[in-house]
Amino acid sequence: MPRSIKAKPAAPAAAANPAGHREHASFPPLVIAEIQRAAREGIYDIRGLGAKRRLPSFDDLIFLGASISRYPLEGYRERCATNVTIGARYAKKPIELKIPITIAGMSFGSLSANAKEALGRAASEMGTSTTTGDGGMTKEERRASKILVYQVLPSRYGHDPDHMRSCEAIEVVVGQGAKPGGGGMLLGLKVTERVAGMRTLPVGIDQRSACRHPDWTGPDDLEIKIAELREVTDWEKPIYVKVGATRVKYDVALAVKAGADAVVVDGMQGGTGATQDVFIEHVGIPTLPAVRQAVEALQELDMHRKVQLIVSGGIRTGADVAKALALGADAVSIGTAALMALNCNAPIFLEDYARLGTAPGYCHHCQTGRCPVGVTTQDRELEARLDPELAARRVRNYLSTMVLEAQTLARACGKSHLHNLEPEDLTALTVEAAAMAKVPLAGTDWVPGRGGA
Amino acid sequence: MIEVDVEALGVRALNERLHRLPPDTNERLWKITNPKGAHALAAGLDRPLTIEIEGHVGYYCGGMNKQAEITIRGHAGPGLAENIMSGVIRVTGNASQSAAASGRGGLVVIDGDASSRCGISMKGVDIVVGGCVGHMSAFMAQAGHLVVCGNAGAHLGDSIYEAVIYVGGDVESLGSDCIEKPMTDVHRSKLEQLLASAGLRARAERFRRFGSARQLYNFKVDHAAQY
Amino acid sequence: MCGIVGLFLKKTALEPFLGKHLSAMLDALSDRGPDSAGFAIYRNPAPRGSVKLTLFHPEPDFGWDHLAREMSEEIGSEVRGEARGSHFVLTAAMPVETARHWLSRHRPGVRIMGVGDCIELYKEKGNPRDVVRRFGLDKLAGSHALGHTRMATESAVTTQHSHPFSTGLDLCLVHNGSLSNHNRMRQWLSRHGIEFQTDNDTEVAAGYFTHLLGEGATLEQALKSGISDLDGFYTFAIGTKDGFAVVRDPIACKPAVLAETDDWVAMASEYRAIAHLPGADQSRIWEPSPATVYSWKKH
Fold first, then answer.
1. C177 contacts chain A (CB < 8 A)
2. Distance, C-alpha C258 to centroid of its chain
3. What would the DSSP string read from start to end of B64-106?
4. Distance CA B227, CA A323 (A)
């Protein structure tokens, strides 16, 4: 039986202190509210989305742009190409993407069928890929998405060789940025008949998931598993390995040695449909240092651009795309941002946000299944609020905008292809970002740890 | 009967040949020799073939199998018949860990012993083991049946969902949320059917039944220690 | 992560072929361990009063013969040696400590890879097939041997980081898996006098066993203690003067296969490495149980 969703009392506003009481930095109102919630409920807080706290990010890097020594390209007339090929290392049929932005794996179950369809349609129009999720492939997504990446996860929910063979690529998920080392989670209200049927679970239960794959552990055995996946699909499809960003240098090197065609690295800002808040906020490193470490690992193996790097975790704008590529990524993947283009946290259906104890701009209650805008819900009525065609158009527009933004920045740096962006086009605004991205602090030659003034 | 020396031909060439057979093929009987521990042998099949493998196989033999009947006359490495969808896979010797992992249908028969994690994450496959199974067998087992004629190792059925386990011998220990349940005529009948389909002789009366206590189906504070 | 192999011959008639079989075993596991390889082989026991040391120096054409002569002259005892690839097996008619002391004073750049009566320990960066060829393994005879092919997980790919690690006289360790509490363990062991050359987790396990054996534990006791003290995933194979031992952690996710005939006992991460041994098809094949010590000794 699905549980009723109690409205959570809204946490006291962090900044509201008009009377000027003395604040406690270690125990601010939000922390006190969480302690008292734990005292009431006796269990960790579970929520959706990714790390909400402020982190060093792409916002702390800026592009240098054109100058007397470096000349810009004219917009529109002078090409700035955006295409990328994924998986030429071993696959008979590598994937050609028109834009270097893909849609990350998000499960049907976590997302509504309408949401998956909208994402598929938008991706198809833009010439890019979507990814299945922890629950398997739906026929809607296969129909809607021209390029579909099939995830192989620890749970193996809905895993089907025919579905896998019908997709264009395979992604072996070792972990994700929101919870590196954690398995999938879907609470009872979202385990509907259809979802339960796909996952072979009883309707309405809280889904528990394994955190390790059932039939391999470690990169040496991953290599044998990847070989099996190639055998089952006759070596046609590129195989990606996805990791949450933790020991990125080791992981990327090991993924390469295990035989991956592409590596996906998901920073701690990466979202989830549901997991413990403590996992989201306290495990994994930000996307910014993760990109740089991943690229270094590939360069040390002389595999940069031979094994593609796809980076995710808090990619929001064309500036983020351009910066990730400048640091050496081949492409980026978006999850949370794609949902927001669908309408996540849009200022509509305000009463429904209030019923969840939140408001547009602050909602992270994907795990409840009561998504006011029909994105992360299995409820028919709520799902109907998301029209797949209109939503697809929104996502397509958003993807288009990001590409145009990235091209604008790249042209300003004199690049005829987004891939020609380099770290030397960037400079950092903070010491942390300089150290993490190994890019000098603006106006200096200084990269912390490397000397110079 | 088509005989193939896979050591000479290579796993890739053999698998490709088997995958390319038309759905109505009359090349249905195959004998594969000299497997010598090779991995992913006969993986990803989707034809009504009958395949005999003479010797020991490595990892993932018969992985993601559909329709085919595969008999391994020897031992099998980890991940035998992983994610099997339908068909029958039989090992006359022993199977290493994670046998029939996440299997969704079909039948897997192990005449000898299976190692740890037999039936891990199973989603509908039926597994019949003539000997014993190792620790963490039927971990997170969601659906299907696991029959163990011998003994079961520690933490049997840890975090089990709706799969049903029958054990003829001793159980070292039960995992979280796995409990013994009464054997009724319905269960005995099902068990006899499974043993018969596996071609194994055993008396259904000495078997015990195990399954989920269903206490972990919804998060409850009081069960936090089980996680 | 890696591949490990072990071969113990029950019949002396097979000893001339030990190296050939071990070579083939390492070759079979080079996919799962492409970065470096190593092996310890037990052969040619040193005469009474002598000790064998396997030495390594990175410089090609290192003056090994000069070293042997100098040592012999200064100490006044017989010293002979045999070069093999970048390594040199020194047999010196003197106590172990005398040899160690001389080497650390006169050739501090030389690394001691293994010490004992019978053990010879070779390891190096590079693809296992090349490494094995450089040391001429397939021509070596002996009674038993352990080998390792390495895919580096969390530490660098260097000769020092390769396995086997030598833990004491005629003792060595190879490891498949990844420990999770080795950093604190390394600090604790260092305070108890164990010296470490690398940040490698396997070296910590080797140091742990050396420490316990030094405190008087038997091999079985040391391995049993290891099961509770060492956290992480591992299959260990330990070589001793008379045989070898195998142990897996309690969760036992990393693979291990054992096979036995009247002529030999073999251990490997994958059956493929055992498949070509003579009589493999008819051998008794089984998987070691978790948290259980298995050992074999010459009689």
1. yes
2. 18
3. T-BS-EEEEES-B-TTTTTT--SSEEEESS-B-TTTTTT--SS
4. 41
Contact (CB<8Å) B94/C276 = no
DSSP letters, C249-297, are -SS--S--EEEE-SSEEEEESSGGGTTTSTTGGGSEEE-PPTT-EEEEE
Best CA proximity match to A3, nearest among A252, A187, A140, A173: A187
Q: Which residues of B touch A (CB under 8 A)?
A: 11-12, 15-16, 19, 39-40, 43-44, 46, 58-60, 63-64, 66, 78-79, 82-83, 85, 98, 101-102, 104, 117, 120-121, 123-124, 139-140, 142-143, 159, 161-162, 216-219, 221, 224
pLDDT averaged over consecutive 10-residue blocks of chain A (453 residues)? 47 72 93 95 92 96 92 85 96 97 96 96 98 95 97 97 98 95 89 96 92 95 98 98 97 96 97 93 97 97 97 98 98 98 96 95 94 96 97 98 97 94 97 97 93 54
Whole-angstrom distance, CA of residue A312 vs CA of residue A324 = 9
The runs of H, that is alpha helices, within chain C are: 18-28, 64-75, 96-106, 128-134, 182-191, 201-214, 219-229
Model pTM? 0.94
Looking at the 3D structure of chain A, how many domains does it have? 1
How many domains does one find in chain C? 2
CA angle C296, B58, A91 (to 5 degrees): 135
Judge if C241 and C161 occupy the same domain.
Answer: yes
Look up the CATH number of the domain holding residue A195.
3.20.20.70
Give chain B's domains with CATH numbers. 2-226 (2.160.20.60)
Residues C30 and C70 in one domain: no
